[in-house]
Amino acid sequence: MTINSEFHEPNSTKHIFPKGDKVLIAYASETGTAQALAKRIFIENQSRCDFINIADIKPELLEAYGQQVFVVSTFGDGQAPVNARPFFSALQRSSIQLKGVRCAVLALGNKHYPNFCEFGKNLAEQLTQLGADQRLPITKINRADPAEFSHWWLKLGETFTLNVEQELDEWMVATVMDVEKHDEASIDLIFYIQSLEHAHTNALLFQPKTKRKNITPLSLATKAEMHSPFTFVNLTYEMVERDQSGIVKQLFSATSGDKWHVRVPGLDSDAKMEATR
Ligand SMILES: Cc1cc2nc3c(=O)[nH]c(=O)nc-3n(C[C@H](O)[C@H](O)[C@H](O)COP(=O)(O)O)c2cc1C
Questions:
Q1: pLDDT-based confidence at 273, cuts 50/70/90?
Q2: In CATH, which of 3.30.460.10, 3.30.1330.10, 3.40.50.360, 3.40.47.10 is domain 23-166?
Q3: Are 140 and 120 in contact (CB under 8 A)?
């Protein structure tokens, strides 16, 4: 087979964005949650990012950025926060070109509302229609769940080469895959921890989803299952009664899909922690 070295891919024009490799961190917020989460990302990446409220811009500004991250909430009946509505109407009417733009949308909402995260979804669709490339699947977060947010930020960091908070780096996200009930007083929780897949540890430190700083993480023994990508933790009702932190009680009522922050013990700061076994 001969390879034609003269061959060039046709029309492979690279888009030049006036803001170079700056990442736009944009938010739309009614009561401040989306703004606060977006700001945390911005604070860790100030030299590379611009931070804006979409209520303050016109859609044309989006053409300046090759990388765009949106953190937006939903209000009313599946609508944008009030001050972001003029922007979104303008975006729906606009003919801006977002070809070559890499973007990601984080949608905040509450599952109690029938149109869960509808504005985030509509925004992502509109951006796609204008040519933007969604580099992460649109992610919907219920009640600004901190573990879900961490999980998304870690993925965002990998995709856009953005920094994450140091604390997030140390903590891994453990997703409950299944709960096996042995009897009323004993269950196995089966976790999937991406960064631990197929590696084994004798214990994990658990931090509640809220990650409130005044709660001491709890160390729980893990069961090794050779060749399994999952991590097993056995909980008994006796442990619930002994545990002062309340973490075991929360874990006891965990269901599939719940996310926890975990860490392998061993850091200096873990030295004082007591294992509950
Ligand atoms: C009056 C009101 C209406 C809301 N409507 C929706 C909705 O239609 N869909 C949804 O998913 N969440 C809805 N939410 C939940 C918010 O999106 C959620 O609390 C979000 O975290 C708020 O973020 P923000 O503080 O940045 O505005 C509503 C909340 C309130 C108070």
A1: very low
A2: 3.40.50.360
A3: yes
Query: Which pLDDT does position 210 carry in this prediction?
Result: 59
- Show me where the domains of the chain are located: 23-166, 171-276
Contact 179 CB / ligand 1 (< 6 Å): no
Is the beta carbon of 115 within 6 A of some atom in ligand 1?
yes
Highest mean pLDDT among 63-72, 139-148, 256-265: 63-72
- Segments in the chain forming alpha helices (H): 33-44, 85-93, 118-129, 146-160, 166-170, 237-242, 247-252
171-276 fold = Elongation Factor Tu (Ef-tu); domain 3 (2.40.30)
Question: pTM of the prediction?
Answer: 0.75
Distance between Cα 143 and ligand 1 center (Å): 8
Question: In this structure, how many other beta carbons lie within 10 angstroms of the beta carbon of residue 132?
Answer: 23
